Amino acid sequence: MDRRQVGASGLQVSALGLGTMTWGRDTDAVDAGECLRTFVEAGGTLVDTAAAYADGDAERILGALLSDEVARDDVVLCTKAGVRQGPGGTRRDASRGGLLAELDASLARLGTDHVDLFLVACPDPVTPLEETVSALRLAVTSGRTRYVGLANYPAWSAARAATLLEAADGIGLAALQLEYSLLERGVEREVVPAAQSLGPGLLAWSPLGRGVLTGKYRRAVPAGSRAASDHLSGFVAPYLDDDGATAVVEAVATAADGLGRAPLDVALAWLLARPTLASAVVGARTPAQLRGTLGATDLELPAEVHAALDDVSAPALGYPERW
User: Fold this and answer.
1) How far apart, in whole angstroms, are the C-alpha atoms of residue 114 and residue 130?
2) What pLDDT score was predicted for residue 217?
3) Beta-bridge partners for 83
C-alpha cells in the first residue's frame, strides 16, 4: 500500500487508514485483532481511534493489541478528543483542561507514551479557538503527540488555527479530518482550498458514503447493515433518501461493471486521486469487510470515468456540508 505525506508535514501515512469506531461495540476484540493484523500485513499504517469510541473500549482493545500482537512502531496512531459524556449527555469540550485530560486518559488506555497524531474531534462553541490551539501546542511540546490537527472544523477556523500554530515555534497544523466521498464533496468549496494554501493534509472519514457507495442498499436494506440498526439508521438515512445520492451510486455501479471491479473499489479510487487527500479511513466492522476494501488501492480510474463521476457528484453551490 502506498505511503503518502500528510500535507506539508513530515508525517507519512498509508493511503487507507483503519478506523476503529465499531471496536468494543459491533466489533469484538477477536475480530479487531484480525482486522489489525490483516491491515498491517497489507502495508497499512494509519490506525484511527478516539476517546469517545465505545466509551474508551476501542482504545483499550487497540492498546492490548499493540502490546501483544502488533508492534507499536508498525502503526501511525491517531486519536481524537473533545467529545465528552456526562450526566447531561454528550457535550463538546475543546478546553485546554478537557483536551489534555482526555489525551492523558487515551495514552493510558493505549499503553503508550505518545500518539503520532492528535485531533480535536469537533468545534466547541464555548471555548475560544486560541485556548484549543494552546492545548494542541502543549500536547506537542510535552511529547504526548508528534503532530496535531482538527476534525470536522469549518475552513475559517482551521485556517485560523493553522496560522496560530505556525507562529508557535513552527509546530503547524498537520491534518484536517472530515467526511469526504463522492456523496459528500462540500469540503471542496472552502476546506480543500484552505488546506492547499496553508499546508494541512486531509484525512477522509466515511469515504464510502456511510456504506452507501458499496452498492449494498441499491435494492433493499440488508439485515445486519447500519441502515437496519436502530442506533445507526439515522447515520445512513440522509444518503438513502436523496435522489442525487442515488444517481451517484448508480454511476459508480455502472463504472464498476465496466471495469470488472466492485463499486467500493471505484469510489475509493476516485477519492484517493483527489488533491491534498492523504488517507481514506475505512471503518470495516468485520475482517471480511476489511479484506474486500484493501484491494481497492491498486485501481487507477481511466480519465473518462473519473470525469464522469466528477460530473454526477459535483456539489451544488450552497449545499450544506453534513457535519
Assistant:
1) 23
2) 79
3) 92
The per-residue pLDDT for range 21-79, each reduced to its tens digit, is 999 999 999 999 999 999 999 999 999 999 999 999 999 999 999 998 999 999 999 99
Over residues 136-192, the pLDDT tens digits come to: 999 999 999 999 999 999 999 999 999 999 876 789 999 999 999 999 999 999 999
| Separation between Cα atoms, residue 65 and residue 61, nearest integer Å | 6
Determine the angle formed by the axes of helices 96-110 and 129-141, rounding to 10 degrees: 40
Q: 137: Cβ–Cβ under 8 A, 6 or more apart, which residues?
A: 148, 165, 168, 169, 171
Q: How far apart are CA 310 and CA 302, in angstroms?
A: 12
Q: Is 53 a catalytic residue?
A: yes
Q: Which one is catalytic: 53, 147, 180, 239?
A: 53
For the packed helices 287-294 and 29-41, what is the interaxial angle rounded to 10 degrees?
20
Nearest to 62 by CA among 107, 7, 17, 129: 107
Q: Looking at the chain, how many residues does it have?
A: 323
What is the longest distance spanned by two Cα atoms in the chain? Answer: 54
DSSP 258-322: HHTS-HHHHHHHHHHTSTTEEEEEE--SSHHHHHHHHGGGG----HHHHHHHHHHHPPPTTPPP-
Q: How far is CA 101 from the centre of its chain?
A: 23
* Residue whose grid cell is 504526548: 144
d(CA 226, CA 275) in angstroms, rounded, equals 30
Cell numbers found for residue 304: 473518462
Residue indicated by cell numbers 506537542 = 140
Task: Give the DSSP H/E element, type plus range, for residue 118.
Answer: strand 115-120
The residues near 125 (Cβ < 8 Å, ≥ 6 apart) are 92
| pLDDT tens, position by position, 272-303 | 999 889 999 999 899 999 999 998 889 999 99
